[in-house]
Amino acid sequence: MCGIAGGMGIMSKSELKSMAQSLKHRGPDHIAYQSFNSIHFSHTRLSIIDLSDDSNQPLWDATKRACIVFNGEIYNYKELRNELLELGAIFKSQGDAEVLLNMYLYFDIEMFNKIIGIFSFSIWDSLKGEMILARDHFGVKPLYYVENAEGVYFASEIKALLRVESIKKEINYDALFRTIVFLYSPGEETILKNIKKIHPGSYLKVKNNKIIKSDIFWKWPEYKPNKNSPDQHAENVLNALKNSVKCQLESDVRIGSFLSGGLDSSLIVALAKDAQKTSIPCYTIKVNTIKGNDGFEDDLPYAVEAAKHSNVDLNIVDVNTSIIQKLPEMIYHLDELQADPAPLNLMEICNVAKSNGIKVLFSGAGGDDIFSGYRRHYAIQMEKYWAWMPKFLRQPLKFLASNLSKDKPFKRRISKAFSYANLDSNERLLSYFYWIDPKIVRGLFVKDKIKHISENPMQFMLDDINSLNFNDPLEKMLHIEKSYFLVDHNLNYTDKIGMSKGVEIRVPFLDRSLAKIASQIPSKYKQNNKIGKWILKKAAEKKLPNSIIYRPKSGFGAPLREWLNGELMPMVDEYLSYERLSFRGIFDYESVKTLIAKDRKGEEDYAYPIFALLCFEIWCQKFID
Questions:
Q1: Helices assigned H by DSSP within 419-527
Q2: Which residue has the higher pLDDT, 458 or 382?
Q3: Higher pLDDT, 208 or 322
């Protein structure tokens, strides 16, 4: 696990060094940078596999033809290494970076079919005069790039790209609009106009300082359910997850795990304990401030029970309101603007894990997105009882929902379920991901900025839904989860926050074999009436007690609504004041003030969009000012 940055084009030595320094939190074990003609590579290393200096990067192959900077882990590198040795490859190290480099030399882009792992990398091929940039199949590891008149530049994080003088800090108002609506920026665009993300499962080729090719090497398998029995599906799921966990245990350092007490993390821990036969240090949080208005179930008793069941050590990390003071630090490390307080919890856990000598943590991320597990998945299933009605009959449902009190979690969920009842099916499906009506968001901008916002900034997501070759509403929603929410929200903050403390986070649910099996499971076995992840729960019955498997659903979040009416209130009033908003010149003060007033009175639930506006101002101070 590392930080990578560089490019092909015009760049000074001081700029390259500065890029590397901005990523040193990602790789505290070694830092290096190198330029050769117009090629510039920098690398900060977190040593996980082959801890010797032989695997330091930038790394050239034995023939000096190609050089690599690589962030990630290749879990099957030992098998690939043996295959390459039979083909005549020469190795100077015992690490996976040199294996990956030789996979490119021997197989070119066909290597992606053979590699099992998480990665972002750049390889300079002096023979072809080309540079390749690639990101792993699921998008676990981030990779950003810029193409401008000076060249093509890349980095693990946006902050590194901002050290290049030719890269301008211009706001992308469509991306900012989407971030207020979704709390993150879905798709390839970022909040900065010139900086983009390489899509998961994709690569770019660069030559003569320009991108000459962009292609996709992997997509999520299309939904094609088969007629296997539930028991057979459950057995297939469990076997694939066992194999994934075993594969991802590959490491030369100790591995720990998150353990929330939810199904996903509890199952990962149980399987990891079975695979390595020794105790795994696990980490969970204790949140002391929840009063019930944010709808969170207390996870701690379940985490304790799961740890006892699997006979593993559980480290309980106390989280109190003082964590709010770390909000600017969180925003700096995320650097791609997100408005979710959950990364604060993650930051605390990773900090404690690193102090305990743990460099790698397992995460249960992806289970909800593949097998269904969010409340919106049940809501979309329930549409069958009313979505058949003509639009003029659905309009009153929207009216009733908009007038429902938002003071309790249950009322908020009912209101959200029907707030967009008047929309057509695919637009309505996308609306389940909204935290605020897009029409209201447009009204938050000052008039001269509205002209920079597209008529529908979410159109590419609707086009994506419309292009699907199946009609199952739940599977359409899961497609959106996997394509946007998982990669641009969950995986983004998981990587950035983990690496801010020098901790690599692995995600066993994100495995190609498991993804293929999930695509063949009928949706009725995923969301079975009120029971989400039903098939995964059936699979888990062989490993966990029912009290863990069928416990109430909870999110890995924080009591934001409580904070906004308490400890965060002075910060909101200061950072979203008339003076600050006028100086920034993007959002209209009166519209923002009205939003805050309605939320504080309990007339509407705008807590998360308000938090998004607060985070944006802090982000601007960190990265623009």
A1: 425-431, 438-442, 447-450, 459-466, 473-480, 492-500, 512-519
A2: 458
A3: 208
